[in-house]
Amino acid sequence: MVRGAARIPSPCCGKDMSIIGTRKRKSKERSGETKLYSIRRLSCDNCSKIHHELPDLLVPYKRYSSECIELVLSNPSTHDIPADESTLYRWFDWFNSLI
After folding, report:
1. Quick check: 7 and 19 in contact, CB under 8 A?
2. Which of 29, 6, 28, 30 is nearest to 19 (CA)?
3. Which of 41, 42, 65, 99 meets the CB 3.0–4.6 Å disulfide criterion with 17?
4. Is 53 left (phi over 0), alpha (psi -120 to 50) or beta?
């Protein structure tokens, strides 16, 4: 179970959010192992939008952990991440679009 201790403001309007449940989220680790996390679902009290509380080890919309993605982006020639070349290409393309 992944849970933050502090009250989280809504990213859309800054108001408080209420916990409405949890959902499962899978993540592939550097070793190739898949881990399952229980992520809190939060609803904005003002605009009723739903958000998920992700820890730093997960990247939104990515299946691999942030450690794997960071390792590949920082050392493109020397990495041992069990991912296809097309996945690595998409990570580079995604990162370049952000910067």
Report:
1. no
2. 6
3. 42
4. beta
Q: What is the pLDDT of residues 76-93, one digit of tens each?
A: 887 788 888 899 999 999
Radius of gyration of the chain measured on its C-alpha atoms: 16
User: What single-letter amino acid sits at 91?
Assistant: W
What phi and psi values does residue 29 have, to the nearest 5 degrees? -95, 175
Sorting pLDDT into bands at 50, 70 and 90, what band is 64?
Answer: very high
Report the C-alpha gap between 68 and 76 in whole angstroms: 11
- Tell me the CA distances in angstroms from 87 to 21, 40, 80, one per residue in order: 31, 27, 14
CA distances from 93 to 28, 34, 70, 71, 96 (A): 20, 24, 14, 15, 5
